[in-house]
Amino acid sequence: MSPLTDKTIHGLAAFPAMASHGSSQGIHEEPSGNEAVSSSQNTADNDGVSLPASPWVPEQIGLRQSVSNYIRSLFPFLDWIKHYKSHWLAGDVIAGITVGAVVIPQGMAYASLAKLAPQFGLYSSFMGAALYWIFGTSKDISIGPVAVLSTVVGTVVEDVISRPETRHFPPHVIASALSIVAGCLVSTIGLLRCGWIVDLLSVTSLSAFMTGSAITIFASQLPSLLGLTGFSHRDAAYKVVMHTLQNLDDMSLDTAVGLTGLLLLYLIRRVLATAAARLPEHKQAVFLMSSMRTVFVISFYTVISFLVNRHRRQNPLFYVLGTVPSGFHSVAAPTLSAPLVSSLGPHLPATVVVMLAEHIAISKSFGLANNYAIKPSQEMVAIGTSNILGSLFGAYPSTGSFSRTAIQSKAGVRTPAASIITAVVVVLATIYLTDVFYYIPRATLAAVIIHAVGDLATPLDELYQLWLISPIEVLNFILGVVVSIVVGIEHGLYVTVAFSTVVALYRKSNARGRSLAQARDCRVVGDRVMDENGHRNYGHYGTFEEV
Question: Which GO MF term does the entry hold, naming one (predicted)?
């Protein structure tokens, strides 16, 4: 057999292994020019025949396969949709309808935190649900407006409006621009497969941020709960509380509506939690009933408001939500002028951190609880893409919601297709139920928000456990909460992250260690342990102390 034929057969035999290796290891690096030339010259010198470098063909096929796999990984629904079973549909439909009923009042309530009209909360609820199932890897998570991120958006809107060069932009335009810019950043991180970056955030920093946010949101909603006006609800938390106490003499019927609504929410949860403990066989049904308490309370007080105010729409007895436009009237390309984008820059770190940290933490925890693994990088792509495309429909930044994710999981969701059902429910409500939304009491919406953020605060027993582990972390926690309350939640996040970084660097540079023993090469000869040359006798095997 000629050398050329022998080399050809050898190359064909090696091809499958090399192609498989290229596919499993990802995209190959192209050989440098010198390496390629050298390989070609060596082949010609050896056989007298000019042949291309043998790894070139399998490397190119491996490259194409890797690119194909990467593109396919951006659309995870292609993997599960072809295996979809008909008996999964019932669970997805029930979960989708349940979450849809919950996200409608929550979306309108959270829009007020973002300084936006209620309909923009509906737009965000729809787009998050309509897009996530295409790109996401979690079957449980529910995407839409959340309290903390909405508060960050509200802070951004107020700051941008206060600037002379951007004060002419409407709030919803600012929010949509923030959605697309933050979405692009998050998508880029995900496309580069840098999901590990979320792990750099310490648990203490996130806990302090969430607790400070909960207190700030509670303070901002307290005047609405009591029906008090005449002062800013967006000042520092301690100032809002002080102004509220100074104006308690102005309480009205709104106070009764808000406080009774808040009491009813907690009462329903407590009663149904007791029922679930006593009736474990009906635990799931009781949980679903409890998850609908927001819908029940909103509906109950809306009916009361309608009966009381239907003949006095221009002068209601208590503050109501007012006119909510039906349909999607804000569908348009977002405005991205240079002054607007530059004014968003200082707020992007906090927006991206909140968007990512909350979503990844929720999706990971529910994936672990339900025995499947999510892909953090792909989740970033899902969140980023949802926010980018959502901005075209007037949506503002959204992310995963813990409360709605828990509801969706307990409702028996089987696949991300449940989000499609949720989107349909929100669309129907946006088109056909906006006249009903007119009579929703604002005090009741404030009660819903306060009830929702109550679970964000870190319990005292967890803080005590943290103290036992690392007192300095408790100091970091307290510092972050205080800064969030006094200055603002964004500054609280920056302070805790900086503090955690300094502590980590200090611990790294001052790490203490002790050498346990000096390693020596030795061997066993019979029952004796000798050095590697067989000269020094360390003792009988199993009796010596130092080796």
Answer: secondary active sulfate transmembrane transporter activity
